[in-house]
Each structure stands twice: as structure tokens, then as C-alpha cells.
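#lab-general

N.A. 3:47 PM
ok so I finally got the sequence cleaned up, no stray characters, all 330 residues accounted for. can someone with queue access submit it? mine expired

B.Y. 3:52 PM
send it over

N.A. 3:53 PM
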Amino acid sequence: MPTDRTRPALRLPARDIPVPTSVSPEAQASIVRGMAAQATRYPGPNDLDGWRALAVVTDEAVRGMVGGTLPVFDGEVERIDLGGLPVHVITPTGLAADDRRVYLDIHGGGWISGKGEVCRVRGALTSVSVGARVWAVDYRMPPDHRYPAALDDCLTAYRALLKERRPEEIVVGGSSAGGNLAAALMLRARDEQLPLPAALVLSTPATDLTEAGDTWQTNLGLDNVLTGSLLPAIQLYADGHDLRDPCLSPLFGDFTKGFPPTVLASGTRDLLLSDTVRMHRALRAAGVEAELHVFEAAGHGMFLGNTPEDDEKAREIRQFVDRQWARTAG
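B.Y. 4:20 PM
back already:
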């Protein structure tokens, strides 16, 4: 979102920001690779073909990074249909026959990309990371399906899962736009008097779609993945609805009425660091158990590879969800 010129602002001189030596060599290399990233050029609001083409390009880029995961994935991948909603059920090899834990995975992609194979691949990666069965929700997206279609689909998947599992056997998680939907799903489920899961995982979530957070400005240009404002995609997704509605911007929800234990993760160069930190503070203020991990020099989605920092983040999340599953078992 462009800076409001009517507000006081600090003008900084042009300066070079070096690649930090405070992170692993692998992370430094990831930052160097990302320095060549070009800012996303969003189509006009009425250019529906342009939005569809952007989704294809984005998905192709993601497949280029992780597309080899499924062929070597040691487990089973099954697609189920929930009244027209595809859900990919992913079961890693080695799970005990009586292991009923399920991780409901809501993919990111700026509300416009991440479907099909990308959804399956991300679900497979999540299943390995958390060591549990995953339901990966292949929800509808703009430009053809706008708010609240994606959230409705996530609620449909959660309702279906509750018919097969006790709530304490379920963890819900999402990153970026998926983190937005995961948090909004908790508010929506609670308001519809559904039982809440054992835990919630929010990785670099978009929690305030008004882009009011400080790092929307201070990390602009530092983040290698989110290279500019998301406002065009946000406006396409929101379809004219009030951006302060908690089902669009979960930060504005009332967490005192019930919310699951939550782990949040971000990085010091993440454009959505403020959204993550503010959500953590709001949960803590409401008395919700909430754990925050902020990683040095990491941008949106960490370092997008096999770095020690990415591994550390995965361990922290695994430990958190394992604790919550263990605490609610029985």
C-alpha cells in the first residue's frame, strides 16, 4: 500500500543492505539468488485472463522448485471429493495403524495460485515435516471464485474432517495467504459452534489485509519473495468486502471467545513480519497460548530451500504440534 503522504514519515537516505554474515552460508546463498527477483506485475482488476496467466506462471515457478517431491515421496497420495471440493489425503509411510492425527493444510499463493499439483506437493512436504497424515485443501480462488469461496471451502474440509476425527486429533496450518485462511477458519468455525482443533500453525501469515503493519514499508525491497504491495491481489480476493472484517483480516477478531494454541513463524526481512508479530501479541493479550519464532534475515517463506534455518523452523513447528497432540490425546 502506498505511504499516506498526509502522515509524518521518516525519510531515509539511499543505502546498500549487505547480505548478512549472521546466517548460514546456505541462507546467504539463498538471499543472493533472491536479489535478482523482479517485482510482481499484477494485471488490472478487470483483466481476468491476466490473473489466470499470472497464476499459471506462479505455479510453474513453484513446480520448478519442488516439483520433484512427489515422485520420491515415500507414502500414499489419494484425492477425495467433498461435493466438488478436491482434498489431497497424504499419508507418509511408517505411520502406526492407530495413528489418527491429521494436519489440515491450507496452501499459500497470494489467494490466486497453488492449486492441483502444487497443492499436493506442498501437502506431501508438510506430511514429512510434521510426521502425520495431511489433508491438503485445493480451495477455489480468484479471479473466478472470490471471497468467501476459499474460506467456505476450508470450512467444508474442516467439517468433513470433524466427521472422521475428534478435534483433538486435528491440527490446522497454513502459510502466507494460507495462514490468513487458517486463522479466519478458526474464527468462522468457532462462530458456527464447531469444536476447535488441538493447535494452529501460522507461517508468515497475512493477518491484516489493510497493510497497516510497519514492515509492509520497512521491509519493502528487502523481502526476496514478496517484492511489493499485495494490494491488487487482496482487492481481487476481497471483492469489495470490508478489509477489516475478521474473516478477511483475522487480526481484528475477538480471540477471548476461544482460539486454539498457536505457533507463528516469520523472519526479520519478511514483508509480513508485522502481521505475524501483531497477531502473536493479540493472541497473548486474549490469554491464548501462542508461541512466536522470528528467524534472522529470513524473508517470506524463509529461505525456500534446505538451509539450517529452514530445518530449525520445521523442528520448532514439529515440536509444538507434537506437544499439543500429546496433551490432548486420550
